């Protein structure tokens, strides 16, 4: 089976499988009972192709419409707004405003006096933003920022989907025919019992299936809502604040920076180096520079570089993005590798079951015909004979129902949905189904430092200025520093902090001061405030002429300002080593500017390394007087004067060291990839337990210059990469995946991290520090930016994989026993002990209820004491086959004995003896499955009760199964072909089922795997399928 699965179904190997691969496995899935249900959560490839065509058409339409509407609108004479708009206090109609922006009509915009004119028409201040008290009138006139979505499916649609099972449809037809023939021959009501029994069983199967599927859909809907939550920064009532994009109104002033998604259509107000990627709308890959000459911003596009402010002019369905979204429908995730493989398992078993069903029907029919011929009644046919043949056919169809394990691939979806819902509570939002599954196989995590391993709550801890290093004490910051440096140096330092920053100081309604910006920027700004500086005063006195925002490639930020007393000055800050090379002067201990000699360079390098070795992030601040600066010139990249070196402390997150230790014990290598100084990175890595003896710490500049052979040798040893570029991270991930065959998870927060997030097996974006571009590319969003959360995702990923293995083991056992019992009995005795109604109940136990019980088991800590499951490991392990074979042989042996010699063994006589034996066999068979379901909770460990009584889903399924079994046997015999059993037979059924538990213990003591060398930091040798070796003492059981 594994060979066949690898050949036909092991084609979904990457994160982004090709359409050919997906078509190949779907073609191989030839035996499907219900296409609507089996493929509900995966995309329709034909619709996907149509969708891509629609997107291209929409993009082309946008390109054409910009010109067409611009010309057509010239002929509209009525520019006067409607009475409703004027009454609300506005002076421009929503549609007219939307047309100006969507068509890029610069001429018409200039006629209204540009952005200022639009702001006046919208009754909004470009500095203070909208007033909260008129939000409702803005929403009423201009609309809300939501898009029309496809309505979610109602419960009855899931019932309808469940009824599309071909085998159930055939059984319904059989039941109707049975009722018709039965009424004609046996009358009312006896003639209806068999047919009504089948219909009631089908109704139960359909309802339970629909309820399970409906609950899954609700989970996916909740997760989908979480995916769409985007937070933006706006100015309202003269205060900067954060809010959801769904709360935006026309007139809002939105602040945008690198990696943000533009939340609505609008106009550029101000900004620096503002580059926009409009490819999602127009299909054009070249980013567009936005300025006063080209101020139009469209929803759905992304900020490629720079920062800026925009005025929202159009929201919701009036935006071009909204119109495009309306034409597109939601589609499912690509198939996960496990789904594809389990579809293969279902197909193989389904074909086997189909053969058994056909042979069973033929054997029963031939025996019936031969028996009829021997009695010389071959020419005499009655409705009773027709009912018997119909019953044989229904039994054969029901064998197919049981044999085709439709629930296998669907159990993956159920387990993943359950895991995704639980992970939301653990601060992880899974955006792609397969990521949860793949994370269980992760062998390597490439993690950022800042905010992931550290708290991201930064404070200035040390400063070197005027030749002295000083440790900062919060109680005496201002007076002490001001007493030690000259007034001129202090002024330049404050100018450097307050002018060269992307952060802002804001006040809330109560006057409380807070800082909005990145943690590093906020720490510097907070330090400036503690020095006694006033942010607003500085910003009003000095005009900013040009800004070069920070990005992860340059690792610097620069600004040119016009000084109050004339002249201009450039300020630059960033990575210490880079800024140091840009400086040819420095401020000495007397506050004087001196030339930067080699001796002073060495001294400053020593200072920087000293700060870094204390795990401080080092930032250099520098300035340069630029005379009369021309805005058209680029910012200077040399000739600066070094003012200060700042050491910023970012403490390690609580629990990170334990989380790293857990990863190492689980066979997962943790690598730190950071833009920080190498000494800072090494100090933090040692503190976290990442950098160990024999491990390698390397700078990105050295890494990217290595040859292929050198990379092959050093990459397995790399534990820290410092001063890395996004391209270095991408190169590392690519090598780990392709050359070293590792399953790689990588974290990222910036838009430049998108290639690495895309390339990795699992891309993990930071929910707090991450940009929208990074989040959109990622497979999982870590909402609290915490490394411990990543470990939780890995733990749940392993739980998903093992839970599905448990379910597969359980279901294959039921399949084999049910098939063999009916087939062998039909061949030998000419009758099947399990009827259609009984088999439908068994199908429900092993399919939907079995998936609920076993596929939703929460993870336990023991999962992280096993090595990762490798890429090439077979899904159905030898241990599983051992358990399946052992339990199947036991169950079949017992049931065959009672089927052929039950009357003699149990001493049952009388006209109803056959009915009692058949009911007893059915009852015993069900209890064997109940106890085997408990056995399946752990494939290798003997202690299968660990955590069972805290899993209310499992307990609920077990109790429901037993209760309903009692009802079927004792009270629904008319429909289920059962008779009430004595308490002795009930007890015997339970005991026979219970015996499967000690048998499971014996089976688990039979070694089936080959031992592998003992890995580092583990107590016992590990096996290649992810399970521990047999226990050596009670504590390991």
UniProtKB/TrEMBL annotation:
Its EC number is 7.2.2.10. InterPro entries: ATPase_P-typ_cation-transptr_C, ATPase_P-typ_cation-transptr_N, ATPase_P-typ_cyto_dom_N, ATPase_P-typ_P_site, ATPase_P-typ_TM_dom_sf, ATPase_P-typ_transduc_dom_A_sf, ATPase_P-type_domA, Ca_ATPase_N_dom. SUPFAM superfamilies: Calcium ATPase, transduction domain A, Calcium ATPase, transmembrane domain M, HAD-like, Metal cation-transporting ATPase, ATP-binding domain N. GO terms for molecular function: ATP binding; ATP hydrolysis activity; calmodulin binding; metal ion binding; P-type calcium transporter activity. It is a multi-pass membrane protein. PROSITE patterns: ATPASE_E1_E2 (PS00154). Residues 1014-1027 have a biased composition (Basic and acidic residues). It is an enzyme of class 7 (translocase). Residues 111-183 form the Cation-transporting P-type ATPase N-terminal domain. It comes from the Eukaryota. The keyword Transferase does not apply. The chain crosses the membrane at residues 163-185, 191-211, 345-370, 390-419, 812-832, 952-973, 985-1006. It catalyses: Ca(2+)(in) + ATP + H2O = Ca(2+)(out) + ADP + phosphate + H(+). Its main location: membrane. Keywords: ATP-binding, Calcium, Calcium transport, Calmodulin-binding, Ion transport, Magnesium, Membrane, Metal-binding, Nucleotide-binding, Translocase, Transmembrane, Transmembrane helix, Transport. It is found in: Membrane. GO terms for cellular component: plasma membrane. Residues 1014-1037 are annotated as: Disordered. Belongs to the cation transport ATPase (P-type) (TC 3.A.3) family. Type IIB subfamily. Catalyzes the hydrolysis of ATP coupled with the transport of calcium. This is Calcium-transporting ATPase. The lineage of its organism: Eukaryota, Viridiplantae, Streptophyta, Embryophyta, Tracheophyta.
């Amino acid at each position: 089976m594994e060979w066949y699965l690898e050949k036909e179904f092991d084609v979904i190997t990457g994160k982004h499988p090709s359409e050919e691969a997906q078509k190949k496995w779907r073609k191989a899935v030839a035996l499907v009972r219900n296409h609507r249900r089996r493929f509900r959560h995966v995309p329709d490839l034909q619709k996907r192709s149509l969708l891509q065509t629609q997107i291209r058409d929409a993009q082309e339409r946008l390109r054409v419409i910009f010109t067409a509407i611009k010309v057509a609108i010239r002929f509209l004479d009525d520019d006067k707004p409607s009475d409703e708009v004027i009454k609300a206090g506005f002076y421009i109609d929503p549609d007219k405003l939307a047309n100006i922006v969507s068509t890029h009509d610069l001429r018409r915009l200039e006629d209204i006096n540009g952005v200022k004119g639009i702001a006046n028409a919208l009754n909004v201040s470009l500095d203070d933003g909208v007033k909260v008290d008129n939000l409702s009138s803005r929403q009423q006139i201009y609309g809300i920022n939501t898009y029309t979505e496809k309505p979610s499916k109602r419960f009855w649609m899931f019932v309808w989907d469940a009824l599309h099972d071909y085998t159930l449809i055939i059984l319904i037809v059989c039941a109707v025919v049975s009722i018709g023939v039965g009424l004609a021959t046996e009358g009312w009501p006896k003639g209806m019992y068999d047919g009504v029994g089948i219909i009631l069983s089908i109704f139960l199967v359909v309802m339970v299936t629909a309820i399970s599927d409906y609950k899954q859909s609700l989970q996916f809907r909740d997760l989908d809502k979480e995916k769409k939550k985007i937070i933006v920064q706006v100015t309202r009532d003269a205060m900067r604040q954060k809010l959801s994009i769904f709360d935006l109104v026309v007139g809002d002033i939105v602040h945008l920076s690198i990696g943000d998604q533009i939340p609505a259509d609008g106009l550029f107000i101000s900004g620096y180096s503002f580059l926009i990627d409009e490819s999602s709308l127009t299909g054009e890959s070249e980013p567009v520079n936005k300025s006063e000459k080209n101020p139009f911003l469209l929803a759905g596009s992304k900020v490629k570089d720079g920062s800026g402010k925009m005025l929202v002019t159009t929201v919701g369905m009036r935006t071009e993005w909204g119109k495009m979204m309306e034409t597109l429908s939601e589609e499912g995730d690509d198939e996960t590798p496990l789904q594809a493989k389990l579809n293969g398992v279902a197909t193989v078993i389904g074909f086997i079951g189909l053969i058994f069903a056909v042979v069973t029907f033929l054997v029963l029919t031939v025996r019936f015909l031969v028996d009829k011929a021997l009695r010389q009644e071959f020419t005499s046919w009655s409705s009773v004979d027709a009912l018997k043949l119909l019953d044989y056919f229904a039994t054969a169809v029901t064998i197919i129902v049981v044999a085709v394990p439709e629930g296998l691939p669907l159990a993956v979806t159920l387990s993943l949905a359950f895991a995704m819902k639980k992970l939301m509570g653990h601060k992880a939002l899974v955006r792609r189904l397969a990521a949860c599954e793949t994370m269980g196989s992760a062998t390597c995590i490439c993690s950022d430092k800042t905010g992931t391993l550290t708290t991201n709550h930064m404070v200035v801890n040390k400063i070197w200025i005027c030749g002295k290093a000083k440790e900062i004490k919060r109680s005496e910051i201002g007076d002490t520093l001001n007493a030690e440096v000259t007034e001129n140096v202090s002024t330049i330092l404050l100018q450097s902090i307050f002018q060269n920053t992307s952060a802002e100081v804001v006040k809330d309604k109560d006057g409380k001061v807070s800082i909005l910006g990145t943690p590093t920027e906020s720490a510097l700004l907070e330090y400036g405030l503690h020095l006694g500086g006033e942010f607003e005063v500085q910003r009003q006195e000095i005009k900013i002429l040009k800004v070069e925002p920070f990005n992860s490639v340059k690792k610097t930020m620069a600004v040119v300002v016009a000084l109050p007393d004339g002249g201009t000055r450039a300020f630059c800050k960033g990575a210490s080593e880079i800024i140091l090379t840009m400086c040819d002067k420095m401020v000495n201990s007397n506050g004087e500017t001196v030339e930067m000699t080699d001796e002073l360079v060495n001294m400053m390098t020593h200072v920087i390394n000293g700060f870094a070795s204390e795990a401080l992030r080092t930032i250099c601040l520098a300035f340069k007087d630029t005379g009369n600066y021309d805005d058209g010139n680029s910012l200077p990249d040399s000739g600066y004067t070094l003012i200060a070196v700042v050491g910023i402390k970012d403490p390690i997150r609580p629990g990170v060291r334990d989380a790293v230790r857990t990863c190492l014990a689980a066979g997962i290598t943790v690598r730190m990839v950071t833009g920080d100084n190498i000494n800072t990175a090494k100090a933090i890595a040692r503190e976290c337990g990442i950098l160990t003896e024999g491990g390698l710490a390397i700078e990105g500049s050295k890494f990217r210059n290595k040859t292929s052979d050198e990379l092959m040798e050093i990459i397995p040893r790399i534990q820290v990469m410092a001063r890395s570029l996004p391209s270095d991270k991408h190169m590392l991930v690519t090598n780990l995946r392709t050359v070293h065959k590792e399953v790689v998870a990588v974290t990222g927060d910036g838009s430049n991290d998108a290639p690495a997030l895309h390339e990795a097996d699992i891309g993990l974006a930071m929910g707090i520090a991450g940009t929208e571009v990074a989040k959109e590319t990622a497979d999982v969003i870590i909402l609290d930016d915490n490394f411990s959360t990543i470990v939780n995702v890995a733990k749940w990923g392993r739980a998903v994989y093992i839970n599905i293995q448990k379910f597969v083991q359980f279901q294959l056992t039921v399949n084999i026993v049910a098939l063999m019992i009916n087939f062998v009995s039909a061949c030998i005795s000419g009758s099947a002990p399990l009827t259609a109604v009984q088999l439908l109940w068994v199908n429900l136990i092993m399919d939907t209820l079995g998936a609920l019980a076993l596929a939703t088991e929460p993870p336990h800590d023991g999962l992280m004491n096993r090595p990762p499951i490798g890429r090439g490991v077979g899904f159905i392990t030898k241990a599983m086959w051992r358990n399946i074979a052992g339990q199947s042989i036991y169950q079949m042996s017992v049931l065959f004995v009672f089927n052929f010699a039950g009357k003699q063994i149990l001493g049952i006589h009388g006209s109803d003896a056959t009915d009692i034996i058949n009911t007893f066999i059915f009852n015993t068979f069900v209890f064997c499955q109940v106890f085997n379901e408990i056995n399946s909770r752990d494939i290798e460990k003997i202690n299968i009760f660990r955590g069972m009584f805290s899993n209310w889903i499992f307990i609920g399924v077990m109790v429901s199964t037993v209760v309903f079994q009692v009802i079927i046997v004792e009270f629904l015999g008319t429909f289920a072909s059962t008779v009430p059993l004595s308490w002795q037979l009930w007890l015997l059924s339970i005991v026979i089922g219970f015996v499967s538990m000690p048998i499971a213990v014996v089976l688990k003591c039979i070694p089936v795997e080959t031992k592998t060398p003992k890995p580092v930091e583990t107590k016992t040798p590990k096996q290649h399928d992810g399970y521990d070796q047999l226990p050596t003492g009670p504590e390991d059981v």
